[in-house]
Amino acid sequence: MNVRIPFDNSYARLPDRFYARLNPTPVAAPRLIRVNRGLAEELGIDPEALASPEGVAILSGNAVAEGSEPLAQAYAGHQFGGFSPQLGDGRAILLGEVVGRDGRRRDIQLKGSGATPFSRRGDGRAALGPVLREYLISEAMTALGVPSTRALAAVTTGEMVRRDTMLPGGIFTRVAASHIRVGTFQYFAARGDQEAVRILADYAIARHYPDAAGSGRPYRAFLDGVVARQADLIAQWLHLGFIHGVMNTDNTAISGETIDYGPCAFMDHYDSRAVFSSIDYQGRYAYGNQPNIGFWNLTRLAEALLPLLGPDEESGLAEAKESLAGFAPRFQAAYDRGLRRKIGLAGDDESDTALAHGLLTLMAENTADFTLTFRALCEAAAGPEGDKAMHALFKDGSAYGAWAARWRARLSTEDVAPEGRQAAMQSVNPAFIPRNHIVEQVIESAVTAEDFGPFDEFLEVLARPFDDQPGRERYALPPAPGERVLQTFCGT
Ligand code: AMP
Ligand code: MG
After folding, report:
1. Does residue 123's CB lie within 6 angstroms of at least one atom of ligand 1?
2. Tens-place pLDDT, residues 213-237
3. Contact partners, residue 412, CB within 8 Å, separation at least 6
């Protein structure tokens, strides 16, 4: 079957030093796990063709599609605070870009497609587990309304990869608004290549912040835009209990999408210090520290852009500081607005933030499940009959009662019908998130028993996170004590 992918590759037209051109390395025996049909259609690609043997050859790197100009992108990055001047796509290859039916330009990238000049000591491959993990969580994030890279497809390779043990290999096809990272700017800035920084900034503006181009200070407006999108993004993460786990500057996308689902996790019980990543020893990327790290990463971007921000160092610095100063208020406003909606408030009263934080504190003290608590609260908003479920979520049942009295007093000041309020709350408080223990279970079935049924079913559940799904209640439950996942791994 003829696979037509309408490539239009703008990154490949940038100067040579932005990337290394090379084809993916073929694999022994590729097999399709899944094609994301809806996304394929959005991109103007026939899903049937993509799922055909010719399509699978492209998705596994065994064939190069017509119009594709494969390349590995150069980038640098601060990892856990330490700077690596050269990272780059060590196991990923950009096949090219397509402009979708919605007019948006997006990258199509293979991840796990073989060694590149940026591989350092790595093998350029991905294990099947992390491929499935990224597929599930990036699609779940999208359904939850969080800007995110997407999953177009996943294949197994028929080859094993060596990690701590030998594991089946996989290749993930990622779709992203772009793969430009804070670290892409750092790569050129660290080399003193100001011309490249400017070319990249102009490119990123045209692609992601076209309004900035028309402003009097395009680079300042660009930085302001990235700051705003990151602030909004991280606020959304917190509203859902999401912990990215590796907020390195090379994993911070200029587009404002969540990128790189390595050791990420959604927390079960609420704890602002929660850390899951096996390599985050000091809690640098803990749940509650994510806004601070977001700001830190944006500061690295501002540094890389300094020469563009003003005619001399002093004025550039002043612009950078002003722009960065926008982060905290933007984040706080987005975070508070979201919290108000989570507890069912339409308006904005001075005392609302304290009220919402009162609930979070109770949740922390009572190790209440984050997602279940907010979901149960939707019911409680419709009437006190809903309180029973709330009480059950707190170790100290009376703790909720006192808070609920304050909450109801505040709710009664707003003229909103209870059913309407409940529906509004249910549209921001999901019933289903990719809980760690279920993610691990479905991966385990796929990896050890080659049974992808549980993966497919979980993906279906996660596609409608805000709907009650009768018969699928178990997916909404926190782990039993024996099921609890304490650590997640990058699996690189
Ligand atoms: P990540 O932890 O996935 O954000 O990757 C950090 C850096 O390590 C990037 O430059 C990756 O391309 C590189 N990398 C990760 N895993 C591998 C691998 N298996 N082979 C080669 N490079 C890798
Ligand atoms: Mg990365």
Report:
1. yes
2. 999 999 999 999 999 999 999 999 9
3. none
